[in-house]
Design goal:
Mean pLDDT is about 90; it is low at about 5-10. The strands form two sheets. Strands 4-3-2-5-6-9-7 form a seven-stranded mixed β-sheet, sandwiched between helices. The chain has two domains: about 5-195, 3-Layer(aba) Sandwich (Rossmann fold), CATH 3.40.50; about 200-265, rRNA adenine dimethylase, C-terminal domain (Helicase, Ruva Protein, domain 3, Orthogonal Bundle). It has twelve helices and nine strands. It is of the alpha/beta class.
Length: about 270
């Protein structure tokens, strides 16, 4: 089946990489795995032989039809749907009845053109998820796992890491795919352990605050806060109380420091207004 570039289709054709991905997701015995974009089914078949069940979410009708000829319906359920509208919580219940909604495992070679929306979808579905092994453009993976003060650290890094730690595993060259993309791809592991309760911050409010703090990369944190309605006096006072340098930018601050600043600016509330 020819790939469709407009859908970001680049099929993995490296058997060793398939085995490394499946091994990174293990243990699989007795577990339900959701595969995002199974494509030609290289990873699907390897998962089906080891997991309790695989739910393959495929947008392309022709690929879904082809995949049905390759796998057993008793092992693999193929869902023709955009993953951005897929219900992970319902799937966790429907396919894990014997284990009272055991959290799902996730694997996927994510289309480059909607990588960030898919990652944010997974974050918002984290209550139903255990861990994920995801393949993305190398530059995106660098942002996901970046630490404070590094070139790649920013809003995406902090937002996703609030839902659990991410670690890079290995990088694949373009010739590991058919057709080969123009970039390298990195596989990373993401464990879903949200930190909002631990850090004492409201989820929706803190995410709004992060968008404000990182709004303009060239501006200082104080200036970004003032642009959203925080008075200069309140911003300066809160920044000083957390021992943040007056001219610091959000990109230099840890999640813990940002959470401490949030708690001072918005005590006992759900954060900045909508």
């Amino acid at each position: 089946m020819p790939a469709k570039p407009k859908l970001g289709q680049h099929f993995l054709n490296d058997p060793q990489a398939v085995e490394r991905i499946v091994a990174a997701l293990s243990p699989l015995a007795g577990r339900t795995v959701v595969e995002i974009g199974p494509g030609a089914g290289a990873i699907t078949s390897a998962l089906a032989s080891r997991a309790k069940h695989v739910v393959a979410v495929e947008l392309d009708h022709n690929l879904a039809a082809q995949l049905r000829t390759k796998v057993s319906p008793g092992q693999v359920t193929i869902v023709e749907q955009d993953v951005l509208s897929f219900d992970f919580a319902a799937t966790a219940i429907n396919f894990s009845a014997a284990t009272a909604g055991e959290a799902l495992l996730v694997v996927g070679n994510l289309p480059y053109y909607i990588t960030s929306p898919i990652l944010l979808k997974l974050a918002s579905s984290s209550a139903a998820l255990d861990r994920a092994i995801l393949m993305v453009q190398r530059e995106v993976a660098d942002r996901v796992v970046a630490q404070p003060g590094s070139r790649d650290y920013g809003l995406l890094s902090v937002t996703l890491q609030m839902y659990g730690p991410a670690e890079p595993l290995f990088t694949l060259p373009p010739d590991a795919f058919s057709p080969p993309p123009e970039v390298h791809s990195t596989v990373f592991r993401w464990r879903f352990t949200p930190r909002f309760a631990e850090l004492g911050v409201d989820e929706a409010g803190f995410l709004r605050f992060l968008r404000q703090a990182f709004a303009q990369k060239r501006k200082t944190l104080a200036n970004n806060l003032r642009a959203t309605g925080v008075s200069p006096e309140s911003a300066q006072s809160a920044i000083a109380r957390v021992d943040i340098p007056p001219l610091a930018r959000a990109e230099t601050l840890s999640i813990e420091t940002l959470a401490a600043l949030f708690r001072i600016l918005y005590p006992g509330t759900s954060g900045p207004p909508l």
